[in-house]
Design goal:
This protein is mainly alpha-helical. Helix content is 57%, strand content 3%. The longest helix is centred in the C-terminal third of the chain and has 31 residues.
């Protein structure tokens, strides 16, 4: 069966027959032509994009103005890379540092340091890079939230609500807030997976899909598991299945070789990422890692952090104090619950659920749930699939309940942004 004649059974977003992505041809840019051209050029779209851009830009601007900025460890590493080194004595004693033969490395992925390299060349930007680098992929992913919502079935006002939820009601908004390389990796992966989902809803070119999965892998290796259900759907009952799989797999393989070479150059092993041997300061994380980097024994604590953890209640103002270990993702982003209405009967929904579930497996087996965060930041690795499912769910129903959950998500995330900013300013003032 040709690409222009795909049926819903191969994982295409399922919508009404009149609006089916499989039934309609695509325009020259690979976009589903059933979307009205006016919807892509409307002034409301421009207004939404401007709100997203300036909303995201405001955060790093305020951070730069109110905080003491300086070169972070990724900028130091970028400067070292430009001189042909992957280590620095300044890493000694820092969290996630690894000592090897008197040299000190940082347990990070290649795509966490790569965006810093251009900024390392210009002295003026070196002290600001931590916020600028995080802002760029974060705002790009947020700007793509509207086309993503429409590509997976959201229409009219529902599309704007889903996009606003993705941009301002999920932890994606915290990427420029924290301005560090841990959140940067999530933003890079989020962006790569968002573009991948748009490509899947459009032209579905195996090499492009492979490149995007490879980029996501270089940022967050666990996300590569999401490629499995897409690979199955891509090759299912196709005469050229082998060619498709090879075209998909080659870029992913290249990304794997890049990561392996990066690890080998630092730690002497292509499969040692450094997290198993890195320095930790937090006693609870040290105890958890002793039970295994990935272990069934970690599941209960991660489930508690992801779904149960609540903020601390006090009698004095401000009465509610978010935990630095995060809060339940259902409390922070209750709009994610709408994704459940997408169900499992539709082949496209099953594929998206499979992708999210596969990515979640190593996350819930991992020893660390993250620290100094708001929400469960590792959930960002599978949130793009949940956003697509949420968009699909609005095709069945979009009313007061959905608007309320989206609005609460935006409110709760905004509270978290204010909480973190106020806490940081208080610490700066005390220092």
């Amino acid at each position: 069966m040709s690409d222009n004649g795909r049926s819903a059974s191969d994982g295409s977003p399922s919508v009404d027959a009149a609006d089916s992505l499989d039934a309609d041809p695509q325009d020259a840019m690979g976009r589903p032509s059933h979307l009205p051209r006016s919807s892509r050029l409307a002034r409301s779209d421009l207004a939404f994009s401007l709100v997203v851009f300036f909303g995201y830009a405001l955060i790093p601007f305020l951070a730069i103005v109110t905080r003491h900025t300086g070169a972070d460890r990724m900028m130091v590493l970028a400067q070292q890379v430009l001189q042909g080194h992957l280590d620095s004595p300044t890493f000694a004693g820092t969290v996630d540092s690894v000592e090897r033969s008197g040299r000190y490395y940082i347990a990070v992925g290649p795509l966490q340091v790569a965006p810093y390299l251009p900024f390392a060349l210009v002295h003026l930007f070196q002290n600001l890079a931590r916020y600028l680098v995080s802002f760029l992929p974060g705002v790009a992913a947020a700007l793509l939230a509207l086309p993503l919502a429409r590509a997976y079935g959201a229409r009219g006002a529902a599309a704007y609500w889903v996009a606003a939820f993705s941009a301002f009601g999920t932890l994606l908004l915290f990427v420029p807030v924290f301005g560090n390389f841990y959140w940067l990796a999530h933003a890079e992966s989020f962006l790569a997976l968002t573009v991948m989902l748009l490509e899947w809803a459009g032209r579905r070119r195996p090499p492009v899909l492979g490149i995007l999965f490879g980029l996501s892998f270089l940022a967050r290796p666990t996300t590569i598991l999401a490629a499995l259900p897409f690979a199955v759907a891509l090759a299912w009952r196709k005469r050229d299945a082998l060619r498709r799989l090879v075209a998909l797999g080659v870029p992913i393989g290249v990304a794997g070789l890049i990561y392996a070479a990066f690890d080998w150059a630092r730690f002497g092993s292509p499969i040692e990422s450094g997290y198993a041997i890195s320095l930790l300061h937090n006693p609870s994380l040290i105890a958890r890692r002793a039970g295994g980097i990935f272990s069934i024994g970690q599941i209960a604590e991660n489930i508690r952090l992801a779904f149960v953890q609540l903020p601390t209640i006090r009698r004095a103002f401000p009465f509610v104090i978010p935990s630095a270990y995060g809060q339940s993702m259902l409390l922070v982003s209750p709009g994610l619950l709408i994704s459940l209405r997408a169900g499992f009967r539709d082949p496209a929904a099953r594929m998206l659920w499979a992708a999210a579930g596969l990515v979640a497996i190593p996350i819930f087996l991992y020893y660390g749930g993250g620290y100094v965060q708001y929400g469960f930041r590792y959930s960002l690795d599978f949130t793009p699939f949940l956003v697509a499912l949420t968009a699909m769910a609005t095709r069945q129903r979009f009313g007061r309940l959905e608007r309320t959950l989206f609005a609460l998500s935006i409110l709760f995330v905004a509270v978290g942004v204010i909480w973190y900013g106020a806490a940081h300013l208080a610490q700066s003032g005390a220092g």
